[in-house]
């Protein structure tokens, strides 16, 4: 399986257009933030906050990491679609290789691609934040972000892999990629903070694992900016900000703990990985 996994990695990174389009949603979000969203927040809503640019850039980076773990894994599964279209997968299934190993190779390569691209996004985002007057993540904070990248990418790889397992051609796959790339900004609360949405929509968003990944990233990356921005502010005001911006989630009066969000990510990964294995094995018979 390791050789098959390396083969998929080479095919993906050899195709520069695939790498670019895997980050297209990220580029669109950055452009929207730079042109529209950033000015709205920094000019109107946060005049009284200390160093609001550091705060909002950290908020943006956390959302971008959640988005990257979805879009890059989706593009990585394009290798599997190419194999189906070119009938290359039939050669693999005819070879003395276990079907689970082939499926694991597709999922494993997508997972590694998601992790690599997320780490690149983290470093680039941190450089930008520091260049704009912010601070580097502390070593412990960076380690937490890396661990969250693994959890988020693991979950999104499984979910995206299950969705992709139903496609046999480029048209359906491209359409799904476009739809997911469009929706992901809303599900992660980047286009509009979750607090600005109706309560019914907020409930729907909280049902998606990717939303919990975004919340966890924000809790880590925004820890220092929030401390500096709200120094001396009331606890009530801070809690309202965290809930409005999607730093923390609530079910009624209950605040969802980080451990609960992590368990949601892990549970989702296990369920959808199993479903992906089952679906691909059934279709290859």
Could you explain how this protein is built, in words?
The protein has one domain. It is mainly α. It contains 14 helices and two strands. A hairpin with a 2-residue loop joins strand 1 and strand 2 (254-255). Helix 1 crosses helix 7 (99-131) and helix 4 (52-76) packs antiparallel against helix 11 (209-221). The protein has a two-stranded antiparallel sheet. The model has no long low-confidence stretch (mean pLDDT 85).
Q: Considering DSSP H and I runs of 4 or more, what fraction of the residues is helical? A: over 70%
Q: How many helix segments?
A: 14
What average pLDDT do the residues reach?
85
Q: Calculate Rg over CA atoms.
A: 20 Å
Oligomer: single chain
> What percentage of the residues does DSSP assign to strands (E)?
under 5%
| Number of β-strand runs | 2
Biggest sheet: strand arrangement: 1-2
Tally of separate domains: 1
Succession of helices and strands? HHHHHHHHHHHHHEEH
Structural class: mainly alpha
Low-confidence stretches: none
**What is the general shape?**
elongated
Amino- and carboxy-terminal Cα gap: 19 Å
> Mind summarizing the main beta sheet?
2 strands, antiparallel
């Amino acid at each position: 399986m390791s050789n098959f996994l390396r083969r998929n990695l080479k095919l993906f990174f050899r195709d520069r257009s695939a790498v670019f389009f895997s980050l297209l949603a990220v580029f669109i979000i950055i452009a929207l933030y730079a042109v529209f969203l950033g000015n709205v927040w920094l000019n109107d809503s946060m005049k009284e906050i200390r160093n609001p640019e550091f705060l909002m850039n950290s908020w943006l980076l956390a959302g971008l990491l959640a988005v990257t773990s979805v879009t890059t894994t989706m593009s990585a599964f394009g290798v599997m679609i190419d194999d189906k279209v070119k009938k290359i997968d039939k050669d693999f299934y005819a070879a003395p290789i276990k079907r689970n190993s082939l499926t694991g190779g597709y999922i494993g390569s997508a997972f590694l691609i998601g992790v690599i691209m997320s780490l690149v996004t983290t470093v680039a985002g941190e450089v930008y934040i520091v260049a704009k007057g912010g601070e580097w993540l502390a070593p412990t904070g960076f380690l937490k972000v890396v661990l969250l990248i693994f959890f988020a990418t693991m979950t999104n790889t499984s979910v995206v892999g299950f969705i992709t397992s139903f496609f046999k051609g480029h048209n359906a796959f491209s359409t799904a990629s476009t739809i997911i790339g469009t929706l992901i900004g809303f599900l992660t609360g980047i286009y509009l903070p979750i607090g600005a949405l109706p309560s019914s929509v907020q409930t729907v968003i909280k049902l998606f694992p990717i939303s919990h990944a975004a919340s966890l990233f924000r809790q880590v990356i925004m820890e220092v900016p929030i401390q500096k921005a709200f120094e001396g502010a009331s606890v009530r005001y801070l809690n309202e900000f965290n809930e409005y911006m999607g730093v923390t989630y609530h079910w009624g009066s209950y605040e969802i703990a980080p451990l609960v969000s992590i368990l949601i990510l892990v549970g989702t990964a296990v369920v959808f990985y199993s479903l992906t294995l089952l679906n691909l094995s059934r279709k290859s018979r």
